[in-house]
């Protein structure tokens, strides 16, 4: 099993940008968001259970999950949200653990936006937080997602605070500087992780 670095950060912090740089170095990426989509794809146990509870309204015409409808439903019905979390979190967790076990690179990057919120720190050997200030998060998210500032503020309020993420971090990437500075930070951490993974695999 690969040595695992858990990568997290708030919305608009640049998690994908950082993960892509590690991937370019040959590091396997396990993305919780990708897995979350896989466990509810047509024919999956997850989607079948959702349809059994909510009916055909939970499906699009092509048989895929009607995400917008489900999101609206669960946020207005706390019991439904709890049921959905109880269904999906174990499926996602199991798939993430298996994907990390299957990784072929010397270490792998487990990208989990809600790592702190869902208390998944134990899935990683080391925690890397991509950090930016809240004002930068808002500016970047507004530009990227074409949503209202009120919506971005609501997402920020629902996520762990900046301090809560930093409190669990072993390493921090400050993603408020230039591309070159980001590259420098990733390069340094990559060499650190290679060393740590080698030591862990050798039982040091």
From TrEMBL:
Residues that coordinate or bind ATP: 12-17
Taxonomy, superkingdom: Bacteria
EC number, as in UniProt: 2.7.1.24
Tagged with keyword rRNA processing: no
Family annotation (PROSITE patterns): DPCK
Annotated metabolic or biological route of this protein: Cofactor biosynthesis; coenzyme A biosynthesis; CoA from (R)-pantothenate: step 5/5
SUPFAM superfamilies to which the protein is assigned, alphabetical: P-loop containing nucleoside triphosphate hydrolases
CDD domains: DPCK
Root EC class: transferase
InterPro entries: Depp_CoAkinase, P-loop_NTPase
GO molecular function, one term: kinase activity
Catalytic activity: 3'-dephospho-CoA + ATP = ADP + CoA + H(+)
Cellular location(s): Cytoplasm
Homology family: Belongs to the CoaE family.
Record's function text: Catalyzes the phosphorylation of the 3'-hydroxyl group of dephosphocoenzyme A to form coenzyme A.
Protein name, UniProt field: Dephospho-CoA kinase
Species assigned in the record: Salinivibrio costicola subsp. alcaliphilus
Phylogenetic placement of the source organism: Bacteria, Pseudomonadati, Pseudomonadota, Gammaproteobacteria, Vibrionales
Gene designation per UniProt: coaE
